[in-house]
Specification:
It is built from 14 helices and twelve strands. It is of the alpha/beta class. It folds into two domains: 15-103, Rossmann fold (3-Layer(aba) Sandwich); 131-357, Metal-dependent hydrolases (TIM Barrel, Alpha-Beta Barrel), CATH 3.20.20. Helix 8 links the parallel strand 4 and strand 5. It starts with 14 loop residues before the first helix and ends in a 27-residue tail after the last helix.
Amino acid sequence: LGERVAVLDPRQVSADGLIAAADLVCVATGGPKPAPWIVRQALASATVPVVSQIPLYEELTGDGERGLQFPTGDFLTLAGQLERLVADPELRERLAARGPAAVLDWPGFTDRLEWIYRDLVSRRHDSAGRVAVARRLAGRESIHVDLHMHTDHSPDCATPIDVLLETAKDRDLGAIAITDHNVISGALEAREQARRIGGIEVIVGEEIKTAEQGEVIGLFLEELIPRGMTMAETIAAIREQDGLVYVPHPFDRFHSVPDYEHLLSIVEQIDILEVFNPRVAFSAFNEEAERFAAKYRIVPGAGSDSHVAQGLGSVMIKLPRFEGPQEFLEAMREADIVRKHRNLVYVQALKFVQTNTRPKAPRTARPGRPARPVRGGRIARSKR
């Protein structure tokens, strides 16, 4: 082994020269101090890199197109990859030939950077909106809207529809979007009740669980969209009903949400991005959503995500009165988000008590017993 392994003094050799003279180079960092320049130099010198699987090295080697990889710390796989390259000259030559073209010179680098920024800009939404629709909205009275809430048609909520509607009216909401999990029966029933009692509009929505890419809300729906489809299929189903695509709590890692990569893949299809949800665990999740919406000029939205009536209206949207999805979306462009303090621990405790001590089936109003709005969880109004 001593005849086959040479230990070189780093003071007497050039790293660039050593890499250029080698057939293979191994970069086995665990990640805290990566050395991308070594990988880049190897590619430029047509030396095949064998790298640990950290994202930076995976990108440089083209996910295996220009070099081989091994799990960080897995020396057995590393040995196996080295043996493959030693025993297979054709594989080694094929990988080596792809390296130099992947290393950009300065003109190539600036072209690539410009392409990246042009691609990002092209994916930003048009902030101008629809002028004709905006003119129709001008001068209309403003109302408050809560865009995200649940009834006892959701498995994790125990709020009856009649109580939800009366509480919404009591809190001066002009419209609400009911977005039960994977059902629209509650929203449809609520819309019919709202039409009978008057004083409030109901947007029929559904918070839909996709196969593996988190949840998305469809607004202004008429038919149930089944759970378990891909995100693209779910969005297509919303569009088929002329509905709007609303992405809830997009960066809350404690909810089922699409990751950043999947969110980018649908960014052009998002109508509204929820930038404020009072139920997220950390305010940084809302802040990240706000930055993402601003970056891509997506219409920002907000909702209480209330699972108990006491949380209703903890965040609202103030916007002109609207008719239908197009006017609603246009009204949202200039809307204001109004936040009100709610004790999250108190509201979450109520959710736990109500959903674990009451019947699971949706309840209907009892004849002769009108629903009353709940009083807990709100700011007391000052006496005039």
